[in-house]
Amino acid sequence: MIKLRDITKFYSSGFVKTFVLRNIDLDVREGEFLTVMGPSGAGKSTLLYIIGMLDDASEGEYYFYDQAIHSLNEKKRTQIHQQNIGFVFQSYHLIDELTVYENLETPLLYKKVKADERKSLVADTLDRFRIVAKKNLFPSQLSGGQQQLVAVARAVIINPKLILADEPTGNLNSKQGEEIMELFKKLNREGTTIIQVTHSEKNASYSDRVIHLLDGWMEKESKSIAGGGKPEAGDRKNKSMEKA
Amino acid sequence: MFKNYLKVAWRNIKRQKGYSFLNIAGLTIGMACSFLILLWVQHEMSFDRFHRNANYIYRVIMEEAQPDGADAHPWLPFPLGKTMVERYPEIVSATRTASDDFMVRYKEKIHSELGFLFVDPSFFSIFSFPFVQGTSAQALNDPAAIVITDRMAEKYFGKENPLGKTLSLSNRADFSISGVVHIPVASDFQYDFFLSFQSYSRFNADLAALEANWRGNNYPTYIQLAKNCSPARLEKKIVDLMKEFTPDRKSKLKLQRLDRIHLFRPDGTDGQMKIVRIFSIIAGLILIIAAINFMNLATARFDRRSKEVGIRKTLGGTRVQIARQFFSESLLNATIAFLGSLGLIKVLLPHFRELAQSKLNPDLSNPALLIKLFALTLLVGLIAGSYPALILTKSPTAGAIRRSFFRARNEILRKGLVIFQFAISAFLIIGTLIINDQINFIKEKDMGMDRTNLVYIHMHGDSRRRAEMVKKELLNSPDIASATTCRFLPSQIFVQWDGLDWEGKPKGKELPVAFASGDYDYIPTFGMKMIQGRNFSEKFSTDGSNIIINEEAVRQMGIKDPVGKTVNFWRQKGIIIGIVNNFNHRPLNEPILPLIITSREVGGSRGLLVVKIRPGKFSSALEYFKAAWRRVNPNFSFEHHFFDEDFNNLYLKDKKQGRIFLAFTLIAVLICCLGLVSLSSFMAEEKTKEIGIRKILGASPQNITTLFMCNFFKWVAIANAIAWPLGYYLMSRWLQGYFYRTLINPMIFALTGGLSVLFALTAVGFQTYRAARANPVDSLRYE
After folding, report:
1. Which residues of B touch A78 (CB under 8 A)?
2. What digits encode the pLDDT tens for the residues B275-331?
3. ipTM over cut 0.95
4. Cα B598 to Cα B601: distance, rounded to the nearest angstrom
5. Which residue from A8, A19, B71, B227 has the fewest beta carbons nearer than 10 Å?
6. Is the residue at A62 inside a domain?
């Protein structure tokens, strides 16, 4: 599904080049749950943004379902991104001015989904995440865990093939964190590919595979300790995944 | 989608009530003011354009060669209009005009009226003034007919039907009303009574002689061209027409189109157009200042908004979609400001009318007008929204989410915009101060005469012949110092270019000469001083033909020992008996020219009776004046005027401009300050971390306030450095329009600098101090 070759990212200021990522080669299979670990400043988030098509690599090649992302223009890329990728952040990044309902609706608006279809999708999602009662509240009226729940719901609503999560439990207490991780696990079992960045070994244990970054280098690859195992074909309920 | 944009925009406005208020209020005030000015400009540009034939009507202009260049004016010989129609088939018709004043009587109502216009009967077919009653075509065919305005119909007849009623003019001739006309506000023909020249004979004037007189230049003449005629070609044909009739004068004829008369001088240079241009620029500047506030606040909120942009991008928003959102936000703000400004215009309009002495009365419910103004609003909104919409959405998402990506670039832009605003404000302050100086200069300038305690009336008809009797009665009162009759007020004496001869006059030299006609008491009543020789006196029987000249005449004529010498003027001999001081006989934008005072009375030509009242005796003297006038002239009206007031009216236009300039300066500064208040609070917010760190390092609130204020002062200094030379240059050019002008006081610039600092301090100080006093721990916790 994802194929990174020789991905390098640097910022140049004056004569100095600061490398964030160096020669990353990475393959992610469809349906995988991958964890990226590493200390602060190792380049984890940058890698996630590049995979999410929000940032360009300075050098290297990126194939998403055999599409050469590195040679597409911004409009094309946004289209692929709109159809396929959902994001979850450490600090939730809900839009403060919008209610829960409207936050869920926004990606659909950008995707130009028709009004009645939009309504039913939002209603379904509210239902699925059991936040119907909160739909008219603003983010500031929710607890952190609830906000992150909405954020995940918002990421899932477009029915993405890939969810990118940047320290999704970083701002949550352990119980809330566990709930979110369980949710990810469930989504993964239903067929969604997930890549998460985390510091926490415990969170990493939910994934199939862990990679480590240090100073922009990819260090080693290891199987997750607790290992959720590969998703069974029978678990795939996602229609769009079936033809893939 | 659009609904969603608006929803978010509206919530953003609500969320930041204070900022939104300042932002929208600034824009509202700015838009209201510039719209008002634009409406006024539109009004000024619309003068006399409503006539059906407006595009084919021209005023004939005469250009006379003078030693110091050509003098272009609309004053033409009487026979010219008729001759032109006869000679050139492309001229459909022509009308000559002459303004006059009479005393009007209807039953017991008697008023002195200044707004009379003699015209040819074709006047109302050339110009299409709407008739309220009667028809325009035949209105003036009868020499005893008169057309009056609806205003006068109301004044004299109230609810009665004025058609067919008789008005008596100065007790000399009666006229029957044949029509009631409405003169729109946007017309330069602001007269109240229209008569045919055919009626001249009814005032004992010799019309036949007038039709043959090619030397008296007194009659503005308008012609209407055939629709297919080229005015340029006609101009070529008529240019030397005057040579046939007055070969000794070097005068040429030109054409000026009707729609240019209000805005341009007869020679084609800017007249009122200059003010229209200046005010258009001011309107633009105010709008720019307001729009800059808007942009500045938007950039100040970049940090906050860039995060939102980032999130929206991760949710799949394209650049265009997100840019659209920013545009809808600024358009929503602009639209709210637009609605507000319409309300504000309604409130401000009466004040503006008073301020500008304009009859401007725009119809704010006119959809065409509203659409125009709204289009302008959208333009402002688009421009103001363009920076955030285009720059912010272009950024790489990752950077935007991580905040403070734009700080450096924004700060340069923001500084530039604030400096620009301050420069405009400083320039407007300089302009206001200099205009004010000039107005005071004129007010206090020694005019060479005493304008105080002078009251005058217009005498009409044969009451002029009884002026001496009234004078004698007046001098019986202890409250009245003196009285005189004269033709013109000494502040407005017209200048002519020929007719003066003296011994030793160099060949070919012509002098401009002002002719003043007044009786023996003229000079003492107006407080002028004799420099040499004596005033007119009854003791000398020849004083009826003797003359007095001013110092400037002596200088320009170059006569030594002028007293006792003989000069010829208008084919009359006169001996110089005295020299009067140089008093300002023209408005102060014109120089003092050679002047001749004659006491010769030509057929009741002196229509003014001027009385000097002793100080403090005003009301009793005025009562006495009125009673004396009524005793001698029971059938004539008494309407008094004050010389001082009239004099001030001469400078009303300048004063008016000065006041408008002041008002708009205040508004520009206010908008500028509104912007600064909100900008500084944003900056204080942005710098909370820096302030926190500085405090932890031991800085006191005063230290920090000073530090941040210094920044603003630097901006103010740069802005002033830009505004001073610009203000000096432009205002020097403005002052060139005055012959007598104040020197530009260097203190004005110092004062401007001081005021700018004061405004900045007021706007910025409080926010900064509050930020400086905040607890550093709170602020550092943010990061």
Report:
1. 313, 316-319
2. 888 888 888 888 888 888 877 777 777 667 777 888 888 888 888 888 888 888 888
3. no
4. 8
5. B227
6. no
